[in-house]
Structure formats: C-alpha cells, structure tokens
Amino acid sequence: MNDEDLFKKQQGKFKIHSTTGKIEENSNLKEELRLKTSILDMHVDPIFLHDIKGNCLYLNETACKFLGYTKDKLMKTNLYDLNFPEFSKLNLQSEELVKQELRFQSTHFKKDKSIIPVEIHSKLIEIKSEKLILSTARDITELKKTEKNLRWNINLIRSVAENSPLAFYVVDNKTDSVLYLNHNFCKLWGLKDLEKEIEEGKLKNKEVISKILHLAEDKEYFMETCAPLHHEENRSTLEDEISLTDGRIIRRFSKQIRDKEDLYFGRLFICEDISERKKIENSIKNREEHLSLITDNMLDLMFQVNSEGIFEYVSPSIKDLLGYESEDIIGKRDYEFIGMTHPDDFEILIDTIQLVIQTLKPNRTQHRLKHADGHYIWVETVGNPLSNNKGEFSGAVYITRDITELKKVETQLKSSLEEKEVLLREIHHRVKNNMQIISSLLNLQSRYLNDEKTVNVLNESRNRVRSMAMVHEELYRSRDLSKIDFADYIQRLLSGLFNSYGIDKNFIKPEINVEDVLLNIDIAVPCGLIINELVSNSLKHAFVQGQKGKISIKFHPQDEKYVLKVADDGIGFPENIDFNNTKTLGLQLVTTLVKQLAGSINIYKDTGTLFKIVF
Predict the structure, then answer these.
(1) PAS domain: from which residue to which, for each copy (predicted)?
(2) For the domain bounded by 482-615, which CATH number is listed?
C-alpha cells in the first residue's frame, strides 16, 4: 500500500480509504482502517499531513496532546496561524523535498504559550496529483539540554586547555587527523597557528610530527615512541622526557581517550617545558650529593628525626662511633636512642631534647652512650631544630661527637688542678704563717725597746705585715684561690687595727659599706695596705684624747672601675701638709700603691678628712 492508498480526499478533507472501494462495503477494510488509525494515534511523535499552504489535512492524537489543542481546533486552523514559522521553510524548500527527505530543528508553541524545541522530519508525497507534506515532530528538549551541557563542558575544557601552561594535542589515530591542539602546543614546538587547518580537517598528525622532529635531540627514539601510539589497540600510557637540540627538556605524556563504553576516540598528548625545573632539580640533587658526601665522611655522628621522633637519616660514622650500622637505627624511634644512654644521663638528655622542641633553639649536652660491645663512651650532642613554614617543629638534626679522650684529659686536668690547689693553699697557709711569725717577732722586739717612737714604727710595720698576711689567709680559706671576699677581709682588717691601737669601738665607731666584690691578690694586697695606712693614720691623729667619732670605709664598683673612700669626722688633715709630697712613710706608701693600681687619689677636708681613690 502506498501513500495514495492511505490518504484519499473527500469534501476538502482527507479520510483513510481502502484501495478497492468504499469502506462501508467491506467490514475487513473497516477493521484495517481502524487499526491503521490506532497505530498512527499511538505513535510517540506528533504526525501532521498538510498542504504547502499550511492547511492541516490530518494529525494524530499525539499531536493534539503535544500542542494542547483539540483535534477539531487544529483541523480548522492553518498551521502557520499557530505561529509555526519554521513550517514556511517547507514551502520554500519543497523542491528539495522532491529530491529527498528534509530534517531540521524548530520550535513549537503550545496552547499555554510554552515553547518546545522539536526536530521536524518531512517528506513530500503526492496523492491524486496533489503535493502534500507528511511531517513528524520529535520533542528534543532533553537533547537540547544535553547539547547545552555538552557545549558548556566543551567550552570549559577548551578554556582550561587554552589557559593552561601545558601543551595539549589530540589526534584521531584512525584517520591521522589532528582533532585539537592549544596555543601552548604551537608555542612549545615553534609552530604557527594551526586552528584554521584543524577546523577544515586538513591537519594530519604525520605533518605535525615532521615539523617538530628536527627539534628532538634523539630523532630515532622520538619516532620509535610515536609510531606504536598510532594504533587503537595500543592502550599503553607513555611518560618520558625529550631533550631538544636547543637545550630544552620536554616532559611528554600520552594516553588513549575512551568513553565509559570503552569506545576509542583518539589519543591525548600533553607536553610541558620542564627545563627550569630540571635545572632546579639538578641543583638540589648536586647539593644533596655534596651534603651527603660531607655527612657520609664526617667523623661526627649525624642523624635526623622527624616530628614523631622517627630516625630518617643516620650517618655511616655510627659504625665507628658506636659499632652499629645506619640501617639498624633508621626507621626506629628516638626513645631507642635514649635507651642507649647511660642511666645516670637519662634526665639530662631528655631535658635537652625537650628544650630543642619547645624553644626551637639549638641546645647541647654531654652524656654517655652504650657501644655495641657493651662499654660506654662520652659524647657531646648538639640538637638543631627544624621548623615548617608555619614555624612549627617538624624535626631535628643532632650531631654527636666522641669526647671520651677529652673527658679523660679533663679528668687528668681536674686531678692536676686539685693537686695544684692543695699546693697553692699550702703556700698561702705557709706565707700567712711566716708573716704572722714576722709580726710576732716585731711585737716581741718592741717589748724590749723603751723608745716610744721606735716602738710605734715597729707596731706600724707589724700592722702592714698582718694586713698582707690576712690576704693570704682569706685566699687560703676561699673556695676560689684566685679571688677573695673583700667585704669580709675589710671587716677583719679593721677589727685587727682597732685591737692593735686599743680603740674601743663604742668610742670610735667603725662604719663599713662594702658591696660584695671578689678581688684577685694583685688588687687585694695593695688595696688592703692603703686601707691599713689610712685607717691607722685616722686612729692615731684624727681624734684628740677623749673625743668620740667614727671612721667609715666605702668600696664599690663604678663604670668598670673601683671606688674606695676612707673618711673620719676628726680634727681634719693638717693644712700645711701636702700628702702627695709628704715625708711620712705611711702616706708615701699610699701614694705609691695608688700608682701601682693605676688609679688616682683626692683628699677632701670639709668635715674631718675624706680620701677618695679611684682605680
């Protein structure tokens, strides 16, 4: 049955007839007509039969539901009046319809004014010499959404590819056609813009390879690695580095492009210029090799732990130092290293490690480590913290040095120093005793003399000897043989002078204001003699018989120097005596001792007498 048999015109409308006569005359033909109509109504797509002017001659039930109109309304309405502008194309393109079927996309306007995208499939048929158009319309809303999403994805991918620093290249290995390449690919390989050739489908992969082959340093390898990739069955992934004749290094990556159903589309190539990165990597590698050469050959033990206390590096010198191999320690935790420490040194080492972690500052300690054969060696360990870019502790580098021999020498020196200290104390003790003997002899000698002047001279000499003897006594008693407690020394010196001259401290009161100062013997002896002479002078001459008063001594450091003040509130220093040019032995001795100390002396006579000595 042909199209003319199916559609026959009656009173301006087309009805379905049989090819042999009136339907009413043949019940079989009625049933056939009903069946065909039902089939057309059940078709999922709208079906229209109309003339070139747009007059609707037939439509199925699907068309009515699709557009929202009743069949009577549509049958009485010109399709162009329903605002189907694309139908007018059928009139203009009717000649094409004679030659072939026509497919195009359009939009349909439903009764509720909504717009539906459709795909129209039309063909020209002829019934009783009248040209009619049979069309089907398919709702392509979902297809349009898919196309829109696809276009968005394509544009996104293209945008990413064009803005990426990487070079992209896609080839259909079945046809050898280049499907896509971005600007960076052309720039990387020195090619002109090939976009137009790609759009026209004229660019072939072999042409591109021939244009860039001359840049490859190893052309044979380049061709070998390209050739197998052209085959669809080759699913391998290629990743390598290509050296170019201009000195650049290109990282190349290639992989087949397949969809979820494993349908093969082509092959993707990604290229990247990694020349600068390789320079940095080589520089880092050279530095690491250099550092490794240093650390592997250094005598000191060097090891690195991470933030969790796991050993990441141990220098080979651990073999010579402790008898272990590096592999025995790497990967273990730091508490195993601490476990090698002498029990008496546990707390010292743990405290040092904690300080390194908490303060992020280097710290050092001395402790003992157990050798693989069981004996202990003395070491000095310096911990250097490592931190991340947030300033947080990320690990530490420890350097451990064998100081066993140093400790032996230190012990020997300590023993030797102790012996010398004992000897020096004995010397000070004997010097003090000898001076006390001299003082006693002078005291004994003075008892056999009747001349008061001579006796006074002997007593003054005895006091001078006693002041020097007291220095040696202080040193003998001191923990530090090089320095004496000057405050204690002055207290004892004044007490001895007051006793020597028979002075009641309630009558003439001594006032001592001396800061805690430690002086060596080269300063203490002359300073003690100066105080001895000035205090003796005050006790003998400053106070008339029966007069009460006080003698004060002040001593303190000032601006990297020392200031000594000896004062009394007595009758004052005689105006007619120049203490710098006096013939008195005591004052001459004071002047000489001040010069010995590289100091200066001044006298003030406002109230009593004040000597100020700065050295």
Answers:
(1) 32-86, 287-360
(2) 3.30.565.10
Q: What is the mean pLDDT of residues 48-59?
A: 85
What is the topology classification, in CATH, of domain 144-277?
Answer: Beta-Lactamase (3.30.450)
Q: How confident is the model at residue 165 (pLDDT cuts 50, 70, 90)?
A: confident
Q: Cβ atoms within 10 A of the Cβ of 140, count?
A: 17
Q: Between 3.30.450.20, 3.30.450.40, 3.40.50.2300, 1.20.1440.20, what CATH number should domain 3-139 receive?
A: 3.30.450.20
Question: Class of the 299-400 domain?
Answer: alpha beta
Contact (Cβ atoms closer than 8 angstroms) between residue 315 and residue 295: yes
Q: For residue 512, which of 536, 487, 485, 533 has the smallest C-alpha distance?
A: 487
Residue 118 CB: number of other CB atoms within 10 A? 23
Number of other CB atoms surrounding residue 555 within 10 Å: 21
Name the segment(s) of the chain with CATH classification 3.30.565.10.
Answer: 482-615
Q: How many Cβ atoms from other residues are within 10 Å of residue 504's Cβ?
A: 9
This prediction has a pTM of 0.43
Question: Which of 338-352, 439-453, 527-541 has the lowest average pLDDT?
Answer: 439-453
Count CB-CB contacts under 10 A for residue 106: 16
pLDDT value, residue 246: 93
Based on its alpha-carbon atoms, the radius of gyration of the chain, rounded to whole angstroms, reads 58
- Residue 487: CB atoms within 10 A of its CB come to 15
Instruction: Count other Cβ atoms within 10 Å, centred on residue 21.
Output: 10
Q: Give the model confidence (pLDDT) of 507-544 as tens digits.
A: 889 998 988 888 887 888 788 888 888 888 888 888 88
**C-alpha 128 chain-centroid distance:** 89
Copy the structure tokens of residue 534. 């000035």
Output the CA–CA distances (angstroms, integers) from residue 408 to 254, 258, 348, 463, in the order listed: 67, 76, 20, 47
What is the model's pLDDT at position 17? 47
Residue 25 DSSP code: G
Q: What is the pLDDT of residue 92?
A: 47
DSSP structural state of residue 183? H
SS (H, E, C) 186-207: HHHHCCCCCHHHHHCCCCEHHH
Residue-by-residue DSSP string for 406-462: HHHHHHHHHHHHHHHHHHHHHHHHHHHHHHHHHHHHHHHHHHT---HHHHHHHHHHH
Where along the chain do the CATH 3.30.450.20 domains lie? Answer: 3-139, 144-277, 299-400
H or E element in which residue 502 lies = none
User: What burial letters (b/e) apply to 335-346, b meaning 16+ CB within 10 Å?
Assistant: eebbebbeeebe
- Output b/e per residue, 570-589; b: 16+ Cβ within 10 A: beebeeeeebeeeeeebbeb
User: Over 70: is that where the pLDDT of 27 sits?
Assistant: no
Task: Provide, rounded to the nearest whole percent, the portion of the chain with pLDDT above 90.
Answer: 18
Share of the chain above pLDDT 70, in %: 84
Burial 55-93 (b: 16+ CB within 10 A, else e): bbbbbbbbbbebbebeeeebeeeebeebebeebeebeee
